[in-house]
UniProtKB/TrEMBL annotation:
<feature type="compositionally biased region" description="Basic and acidic residues">
    <location>
        <begin position="147"/>
        <end position="158"/>
    </location>
</feature>
<feature type="region of interest" description="Disordered">
    <location>
        <begin position="1"/>
        <end position="29"/>
    </location>
</feature>
<protein>
    <submittedName>
        <fullName>Telomerase-binding protein EST1A</fullName>
    </submittedName>
</protein>
<feature type="region of interest" description="Disordered">
    <location>
        <begin position="79"/>
        <end position="208"/>
    </location>
</feature>
<dbReference type="InterPro" id="IPR011990">
    <property type="entry name" value="TPR-like_helical_dom_sf"/>
</dbReference>
<dbReference type="InterPro" id="IPR018834">
    <property type="entry name" value="DNA/RNA-bd_Est1-type"/>
</dbReference>
<dbReference type="GO" id="GO:0000184">
    <property type="term" value="P:nuclear-transcribed mRNA catabolic process, nonsense-mediated decay"/>
</dbReference>
<feature type="compositionally biased region" description="Basic and acidic residues">
    <location>
        <begin position="129"/>
        <end position="139"/>
    </location>
</feature>
<dbReference type="InterPro" id="IPR045153">
    <property type="entry name" value="Est1/Ebs1-like"/>
</dbReference>
<feature type="compositionally biased region" description="Pro residues">
    <location>
        <begin position="84"/>
        <end position="93"/>
    </location>
</feature>
<dbReference type="GO" id="GO:0042162">
    <property type="term" value="F:telomeric DNA binding"/>
</dbReference>
<dbReference type="Pfam" id="PF10373">
    <property type="entry name" value="EST1_DNA_bind"/>
</dbReference>
<dbReference type="GO" id="GO:0005697">
    <property type="term" value="C:telomerase holoenzyme complex"/>
</dbReference>
<feature type="domain" description="DNA/RNA-binding">
    <location>
        <begin position="336"/>
        <end position="446"/>
    </location>
</feature>
<dbReference type="GO" id="GO:0070034">
    <property type="term" value="F:telomerase RNA binding"/>
</dbReference>
Length: 691
């Protein structure tokens, strides 16, 4: 090691010691003054003495200015306490240590004509020795004298007398100048600037830190399977506990259902644990090392659950979007998409239709359709009986409504049938609906196609008393009743209730208006859903005999004959097989999706009817021109199936005409005539519709 590298550290240590000794000497000589007066406090004054001084002399001033005695005492003691730099810290002014790159070597030229210049080794060596000797002498002098002047070390002499800054300088100066703390200008507890012996922090703005990839340990298939089994066992345990707590809570009396804050927190924590268990199970089963069988445990086995959860999240987000209508509509569409997707995978689950009913606002007819459907599927959602009242209450209470009067009357009539309230308004509501129905259909034209099957399905649900277990037809058609479900029963058990009879009369009066619109393709979706319901009931003649008498069979036969004039394949409608296109895959009609999952639709559609054709959600309820002919063939096929039952309709393969049994062969008045060559289409103007 060279003598230069040994000299620089020694010189720095010497300067630190000299400045430290000088600072301590100056500090011992100086006494501090009170922060609020000119009283001088000698070095070594104790804390109790300082506190007593402030209490005795400045109590009123401290109280008036809302000062803290503890802060005043601490600041005063800081003026008396020596502040020395740490042993490892360099002094405030560090010597400039030159490096080999800082030195400028004066080379001697060798050669001529611009040749390379090389330093003279002898000259450089002697010069370096002289500089090193001078540096050693200066270092020796610096130990004896506190001030030196050298090009390699220059100390700032702006502070007179070599006095360093200390924490009490600012406070003492302001005190001597007569400045006192106040509420507007409180005295700072320390200096406004800080001097430190630490070197400045490096600037890392332009440095990109590299983060190592987390270490992963391989896991065997056996270990992963054991881990998944353990997680699933915990999931089942927590889920059972959640069900137990929820059932216990729901079974308590109404007065004791309120939970305190601690109970709510415990209940939330329990369900949060269940959510975490589901998440862990999902992650473990989808591990990169998982086998295909292990991956199938959560996907697609739980795919239906995940999809419904996405709908729930969208619905919750929609519910809190009160400020921005556009955002609310966006999240409504997102939630509706996932619930529709979930209902395609579980069409018999009523809970999903209940959620879709909530999202259907403000379309009252669509809400009524979804609410009633949620109660008339194999897995009904009984809580919908409470939710549906949010739709009925405004109409039962007479609150102002933005709905068209005819739709409001229909919703009100269903509300009376469902709740049993305001029964005195039922006839007036039905009359208002029926009297304006024909004109309403003619005005809405194609837009009534959706409303038609909404109304048709809602009427069928009303006849079943919205899924009531006490309804005799409901008892007969509900799955799991066995082969003897239609056996004739004694007494009044076989009779329809008053609600069911009123609903049947409402349906019959609606049929008499809608089915008279011969040649109007916009009423055929309504006709299609009505025939589907009647086709299913034909399998239970004993339980539905009372209802059969209120169906306008003669009018149905006339409308079927109108549709048969445009039929291109009578072999298709006369066959017992469900109508299918000759080429390609059958595309479900919009009302097919609406009827899917209902109790009376299982006998109608083939098992793979909805799964064989992939259709986007946006296109499910899209009406295309080719559907008109297909819908007519479906209605004719259902008419042939009803005629084959021999209960109401008849069909002649020779004349290819429909009729009715003698019991229902009545005269129909005011039937519009069909001009020849018109293909069954009749234009009905608004004036005729109003009459």
């Amino acid at each position: 090691m060279s003598s230069r590298s040994q000299t620089a550290p020694n010189l720095a240590d010497t300067i630190v010691k000299v400045q430290r000794n000088q600072w301590e000497k100056e500090r011992r000589k100086r006494a501090a003054k009170c922060l609020l007066c000119e009283h001088e406090l000698q070095n070594g004054t104790k804390e109790d003495e300082v506190k007593a001084h402030f209490v005795d002399r400045h109590a009123e001033e401290i109280e008036a200015q809302e000062l803290q005695i503890s802060d005043l005492v601490a600041n005063t003691l800081s003026l008396l306490k020596p502040r020395t730099p740490g042993p490892d810290q360099p002094p405030a002014s560090t010597p400039h240590q030159t490096t080999s790159s800082d030195k400028k070597i004066d080379p001697t030229a060798t050669g001529t004509d611009g040749g390379d210049k090389q330093p003279n080794k002898a000259t450089t060596s002697s010069r370096a020795q002289r500089k090193e000797k001078e540096r050693d002498e200066k270092a020796k002098r610096s130990k004896a004298r506190g001030s030196t002047h050298d090009v390699d070390f220059h100390r700032d002499t702006s502070q007179k007398g070599g006095k360093l800054w200390n924490p009490g300088d600012d406070a003492a100066t302001s005190s001597r100048a007569g400045l006192k703390p106040s509420a507007e200008n409180p005295r700072p507890s320390g200096p406004t600037h800080t001097n430190t012996f630490d070197p400045p922090a490096p600037n890392f703005d332009n440095v990109e830190d590299m983060i190592k990839q987390p270490e992963t340990r391989p896991i065997s298939q056996e270990q992963l399977v054991a881990e998944v089994k353990g997680i699933y066992a915990g999931l089942v345990m927590v889920e059972s506990k959640c069900i137990e707590v929820d059932n216990a809570q729901s079974s308590t009396t109404e007065g004791a259902t309120k939970l305190n804050n601690d109970q709510w927190q415990a209940l939330i924590a329990l369900h949060r644990t269940l959510l975490h268990e589901h998440h862990d199970f999902f992650l473990a089963s989808q591990h990169p090392s998982a086998s295909p069988a292990l991956r199938r445990l959560a996907m697609p086995t739980f795919e239906d659950t995940w999809i419904e959860c996405l709908g729930d999240l969208g619905r919750y987000r929609m519910a809190i979007e009160d400020d921005d209508i556009k955002d609310r509509e966006v999240w409504t569409a997102v939630s509706r998409h996932w619930y529709s997707k979930a209902s395609d995978k579980a069409p018999t689950t009523g809970r999903l239709y209940h959620h879709l009913a909530i999202l259907a606002r403000p379309n009252a007819l669509q809400q009524l359709f979804f609410y009633t459907k949620s109660l008339c599927v194999p897995i009904p959602f009984l809580s919908a009986r409470e939710s549906i009242m949010t739709l009925f209450e405004p109409h039962l209470n007479g609150s102002p409504s933005r709905l068209p009067e005819i739709e409001a009357a229909f919703v009100r009539a269903n509300g009376i049938l469902f709740s049993g309230r305001n029964t005195d308004q039922f006839e007036s509501s039905v009359n208002e609906f029926i009297e304006n129905l024909d004109f309403h259909i003619s005005r809405k034209t194609k837009r009534w196609m959706d409303s038609g099957y909404f109304i048709g399905i809602a009427l069928s649900c009303a006849i079943l008393e919205y899924g009531s277990e006490a309804n005799p037809i409901m008892q007969a058609i509900k799955p799991g009743r066995g082969d003897d479900a239609d056996t004739r029963m004694d007494g009044t058990e076989h009779l329809l209730s008053q609600k069911s009879s009123d609903a049947a009369r409402l349906a019959a009066r609606t049929h008499n208006v809608v089915l008279r619109r011969f040649g109007d393709p916009n009423v055929i979706p309504y006709f299609h859903t009505t025939l589907t319901f009647l086709f299913h009931l034909s399998h239970y003649p004993s339980s539905t005999a009372q209802l059969q008498n209120q169906v306008p069979w003669k009018l149905i036969s006339l409308l079927l004959n109108t549709l048969s004039e445009s039929c291109t394949s009578f072999e298709t409608i006369e066959s017992e097989d469900f109508p299918q296109p000759d080429k390609g895959t059958a595309r479900p009609l919009p009302e097919d999706f609406a009827q899917r999952g209902l109790l009376w639709a299982d006998r109608y559609y083939p098992d793979d009817f909805f799964t064989s054709c992939k259709i986007d959600d946006e296109e499910k309820y899209l009406e295309v021109p080719s559907m008109e002919q297909e819908r007519a063939e479906r209605c004719l096929w259902l008419g042939c199936r009803l005629a084959a039952a021999g209960q109401s309709l008849t069909y002649s393969k020779e004349s290819r005409q429909f009729g009715v049994v003698s019991e229902f062969d009545i005269e129909i008045t005011d039937v519009p005539s069909i001009p020849e060559g018109a293909s069954g289409d009749i234009e009905i103007d608004d004036a005729a519709a109003c009459s």
